[in-house]
Amino acid sequence: MCNTIKEIILKLKEMIEKNIRFDFRTLNESVVEKDVENAYRTLFSRLFINCHITSPFGCDGFLIGNPNIEEHKNLRALLEFKHLCNLSNKSEQSKVLIQCIFYLKKFEKRGIELPNVVFIGDKKQCFGCHTNALTKYLDYNIDWSIAPCNSYESNPDMIHDIINDEDINPFIFNLFDGFNWKAISRQLIDLSTKVKRLIKVTDSNIVPVYSDFCEYVLHKKCTLSEHDKASLFIMKLTNDTHDIYLHPMKKDILATGKFFGDVLVNSDNFSNFFGHYDGGQYSTKEKTELVKIVDRIIEDNKRRRSGDFFTPTNWVNESHDMISEQLGEDWREKYVVWDCAWGTGNLTRDGKFKELYCSTLSQGEIDVAIDNNINSEAERFQYDFLNDGIINGKIDIENDPKLPQGLKEALLSGKQILFLINPPYGTANEAGSNGKSKKGMALNKINEMMKNDDWGASSQQLYAQFLYRIYKLNINNNIKIAVFYKSIHFTGSSYMKFRSKFFKKFNYLDGMLFQASHFDGVSDQWGIDFSLFESKECIDKNNFIHKLKNVNDSVITTIGEKNIYNIDNDLSFSDWIKRNIKKEKTIDAPQLSNSLNIENDGIGKIVKDSLGYYFNISNNVMKNNQEVYILSSSARSAHGISILPINFLDVVSNFTARKIFTGKHSNWINDKDEYLAPTEEVQQSELYKQYNYDSIVYSLFHSASNQSSMREVNYKDRKWDIKNEFFWISKNDIMELADQDGFDYIYYDAKNSNERYVYNLLFGEEKIYDKLSPDAKEVLDISIELVKKTFKMRKQIHQEHPEYHLNTFDAGWYQIKIILKEFYPQDLARFVGTYKSFEDRMRPLVYELGFLK
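The structure assignment produced for this chain is given below.
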């Protein structure tokens, strides 16, 4: 019986942990602030059992702990949520805290007991602090009637005081997959009882902790070597010396004396960081263990910045099993195995090989491996796979001074060779973990060879460079490849030249796709591909069936299949929508960085008298979230096309197909999927015509539908009017509303304007409104109702916020939502629910019509 109870408790704990991991994925997929709020509320309901969360005074949340749980009963937490706010930045942090202070004032005025804890939660970060540090600000003589969300704009003095307040220095939790959420619940409980609990750094959490130290504590201009950074971190963490302290007279200087001299740090973050971790409770043995892993945290941190990631043991084992299925159980005996991106041996350290070669860029990694007896039976050697052994622009195996003799003989004599690798994923155009460009990392001798051999854009990708060199080494058709990488080379249009050459020599045998977050510190938004290739021409160069894998109760299981495909022999949807406007001349016009912000230095061009501008980077699902949207003038960064009557339906059809797959519908399984143009047969179908009509409505109200209307705006010393040709209500209806509310400007603006294109399309001669599906009609009808309902607020809000340009008769939904969010949130929620149902009904049509496979 006792064992049964233990098993039940263990099972419940596992279920709670699984739910919390699901909540984190939901948080990580959030696209707006409301998503963040919903994710945290669900998370807190699991962390604080039977807690009570309300929203007094319109705050994001007020959590009261369960009075029947001893450690929770004192908890009264004010909750505030943000979306992509840099909470490590003192200025941004202070803006959110002043908002919380304004809510505390509302509690005080109502005579309600104040919350004892404030919790600020963002998509990427969060923190908690005791309200004792904030209550002094309640005595300020200021206008407390201001809405909390706008409070920081009117109180710069308070912002200044909070930034410089030594009592306000919270610990910022940086959220990542696998984060221990109980640390947050413990902190809030401790704050509510005024207990300070220090966190012990261990082997299991030291890597992310050290990463935080490098990013948030050390100054950007810190010149310490990687080894000295790690040593400083360990010394201070374990209190090995008291000779390391913040300089009392010099801001942002850490005095370390004989060790490292004066070190540039962020003083506030330094005190906060080490005040959160336990430095006095390590045994001698524990200190020794921490010091021993200095090399590991150095290498881990370097690899994160260079696009290199360690392969977890369970996925190594899974890959070995897949190799055994294809090459036989005796492959370690039968093949010469070369891991040419060996690192510290994750792919090979647990196996026994008859003939194993391990090479890596860093001699330090070889030294670590030798010290720890990793793959002692192997030939381990330092080798730059992308530069070494290349003489006069050619790979010269025989005269390569760094290649072991046995490996040379294997390559030249035709022995069966297996490349087992997890190469780095970086490109010259990606940003590193510190936000700095990786420009130059892909510039090497292999890069030059690929350019000369016309391998196209793939020459910029490091893992493509590894595959190219293996391709060139395959002189005897004796090579097989087992590789972890991104699957973009199977699908992306920029890899078409790569595919045309690589698949003439290598045939795809088998593969699996799994979520990248199973690799420590990697995003969960994309998938990692493990594939096997043999030396012969690929049979099907367009479709590559992969097993979908996931981890369930610590066991890797197959959850389905995925066709990773390319459209090399088909027309892309993105190219198709451009086909009728290629010869149209474009002009310089106001450059928009968003719906209402005009820049003078953009590079976008637009056709004169166009209906708008469609910004759409790439042709795959991966880019749908942030890089697909509609504007009423050109985008400052270009990468789009003008919208004209001749391609209007094509554009809204494409926009709908792309934006329907965003948020949780854009994921690691489908993110590399490419969109195909509709076939002639599809274009003639009634289903496609209906989809097109409904897409007009979809394109009006999506959050990426940034159509706007502005009058007499300045662009390059000239006044411009920006019209919203996507407006869907008649000018006569707007004139009537303007007349009723005395908004003369809008009245005459409508009177002197033409009916807009979309209104004519919906209600003019074609009367497309009558052809809409019932749910599309419902969305449109509610929107018209809400435009009329909000109209009475337009004049007042325009006077207070002329930057919203609500004085135009054809103001877009982006502008109307400003009023709805502030004054009619329930009406907006009703609309959003109706729109979401409409969107869910439309989504399967993207597959039915063949836009995605």
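Interim note for the steering committee: The longest strand covers residues 555-565. The chain has 31 helices and 30 strands.
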